[in-house]
Specification:
Blueprint (H helix, E strand, L loop, with lengths): L1 H55 L4 E4 L9 H16 L4 E3 L6 H11 L4 E4 L5 H10 L4 E5 L8 E6 L1 H15 L4 E6 L4 H17 L4 E6 L6 H12 L5 E4 L5 H8 L3 E3 L17 E3 L2 H12 L7 E4 L6 E3 L8 H16 L9 E2 L5 E3 L7 H4 L9 E2 L6
Parallel strand pairs: 1-2, 1-3, 3-4, 4-5, 5-11, 6-7, 6-8, 7-15, 8-9
Antiparallel strand pairs: 10-12, 13-14
Length: 387
């Protein structure tokens, strides 16, 4: 009996110790789990905090303008793009207006580089100054409009202006009853030259007898000089006047003579509502937003961006209220043909206006060749000034 009691006592003690051991193990595991969960939560919070920090880090962005946003043309379109950037990212970008294409541009760029992350230089003549300043500020990202020189921290961007100019030329050719069209060119640089050439090829495609007379204003924004240049052409009895400047004075001069007019870069219908046709326009906004986003994401790399009708960068303004429907319909057909690739604008055989074969039959110009164009096509009356 004594033995039995002793055995039961030992059994109960062993059972008690076993239960106690299980209890302590469970507590330990619960504590470890709790601490693990807490640690995981802290890590997640830290990651979220890090993500928030990344999201809040916005670049300091600046734009350098050749003119003012109220010019109604080139600078206006860039400023509309800037506004989209500010709205998209909730920032306030810096703008510097009326910066001439000379040594002063380098001073402005260098001042901006000291406290900005991204600088958009929006005129062709800034190119060398951008390259100079970019060498001194390798951590700043520079984007140069219409130029061709790049560096590790310098990219370029350009619109396929020849596509929108071809659409404008189609309309002009259909409306030029006497076959005489005038074109006021800004500066004799490739972007103006290829625009005149594409415009002329389109006009001749729908009206083979068309001749496009060109005069140069050597200005981007000088209403007085541009009006004088326009009047020189209007005095020749032209039916349509196209203008490649930032001001609307050319189409206003045409309206005074009751002549169809075209401006450039932005919708200028308000300046000559009765005689306005349309003109090439540019949408920089999408490109600017994509560029800033790529910088924020750490994906930005130097490139030469080129956008056309297909990308939505190139386009034409809405037609004037008196443009016939048949003209609108034909231009829309041509638009679709360019986007699909059926129409290749600079396709041979192409001759210049001195009779020299420039593009052989069965060949076509590359984008690089177009962007460096320095000759005028057959059908253009005028010449390229020599420096």
């Amino acid at each position: 009996m004594e033995f039995r009691k002793k055995w039961i006592s030992q059994f109960l003690f062993a059972t008690f110790m076993l239960v106690l051991l299980f209890a302590l193990t469970a507590c330990s595991q619960g504590s470890d789990s709790s601490e693990g969960t807490k640690e995981k939560e802290e890590n997640t919070a830290a990651e979220n905090s890090s993500d928030d920090s990344k999201e809040k880090k916005m670049p300091r962005v600046a734009f350098v303008y050749i003119g003012v946003p109220s010019d109604g043309g080139w600078t206006k379109t860039h400023d509309e793009g800037r506004e989209l950037v500010d709205k998209t990212f909730g920032i306030k970008s810096t703008t510097v207006e009326n910066v001439p294409e000379g040594p002063d541009a380098e001073r402005v760029l260098e001042e901006l580089a000291q406290d900005h992350d991204i600088i958009f230089a929006t005129s062709y003549g800034y190119m060398d100054y951008v390259i100079n300043v970019a060498k001194k500020y390798p951590n700043v990202t520079f984007l140069h409009a219409t130029g061709y020189k790049k560096a590790e921290n310098v990219g370029t961007y350009q619109v396929k202006g020849w596509e929108s100019s071809y659409l404008a030329g189609t309309a002009a050719g259909l409306l030029a009853k006497n076959g005489k069209i005038g074109y006021v060119g800004a500066f004799p640089i490739p972007e103006v030259i290829y625009s005149i050439n594409a415009f002329t090829l389109a006009a001749k495609a729908v009206n083979p007898d068309v001749e496009v007379s060109v005069v140069w204003s050597n200005t981007w924004f000088d209403p007085t000089a541009e009006k004088q240049a326009a009047e020189t052409l209007l005095d020749q009895g032209i039916d349509v006047l196209a203008n490649y400047q930032d001001s609307p004075t050319g189409i206003q001069a045409a309206a005074e003579r009751n002549v169809w007019g075209m401006g450039n870069d932005a919708d200028m219908s308000a300046y000559a509502p009765e005689t306005y046709i349309t003109n090439p326009i540019i949408n920089w906004g999408d490109y600017y937003v994509q560029t800033v986003q790529s910088w924020i994401d750490g994906r930005w790399k130097s490139e030469s961006y080129l956008g056309g009708l297909k990308e939505g960068m190139a386009n034409i303004a809405p037609f004037g209220k008196n443009v016939p429907d048949k003209v609108k319909q034909k231009v829309e057909e041509v638009r679709k043909s360019i986007i699909s690739g059926e129409t290749v604008i600079f396709k041979g055989p192409l001759y210049d206006n001195t009779g020299q074969l420039r593009v052989a039959e069965g060949e076509s110009l590359t984008d690089e060749q177009i962007l460096s164009m320095d000759w005028l096509v057959e059908g253009v009356k005028g010449s390229i000034p020599k420096n």
